[in-house]
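Batch job 17 of 40 flagged for manual review because the log was empty.
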Amino acid sequence: MPEQPGRSRLVVLAGPTAVGKGTVAAAVREHHPEVWISVSATTRAPRPGEVDGVHYRFVSDEEFDRMVDSSQLLEWATVHRAARYGTPRGPVEEALAAGRPAMLEIDLQGARQVRESMPEALFVFLKPPSWDELVRRLVGRGTETEAERERRLATARDELAAEEEFDVTIVNREVHEAVEELVTLMGLGPES
């Protein structure tokens, strides 16, 4: 459907595990507060320092099932064959209708679902400078077991192969540069 006057274009940021999607989104949130960023719901447990309602909305499997059954999610997926993640639909639609620049920071499966329902969105692929750097970031994070790391790296190989499905690619060499490239794509100027 064509964009309505006054309505913003949704930007969907996706990429492989450990590429820095969360770090880039947090920097956008900090330096560009005019950008509305969706808070995903997830069934996984919080990592150290994560706050419910800020980083994610942490929900039970039963609550997630209710959200799916009542079509409250724009997209959802089981990620790394473990926890489920999803984007609550209502807040996204409200932000866009209000004319606010809006962004989703989601995984590849979610981006594909959003493309089905909102093909007018701008799909941005966040890519690591190299495979070795992606492995270093995942291991350096220290939040996963060895088995989880191996599972995430296997998924990352598939995710990297999906780059051609996106409208634009940003290489995340340095967070500040990636953020500025992203907000420029959103039609916003550099931070002052």
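Reviewer: the log was empty due to a logging misconfiguration, but the result itself is present. The chain has one domain: 10-185. Unflagging and moving on to job 18.
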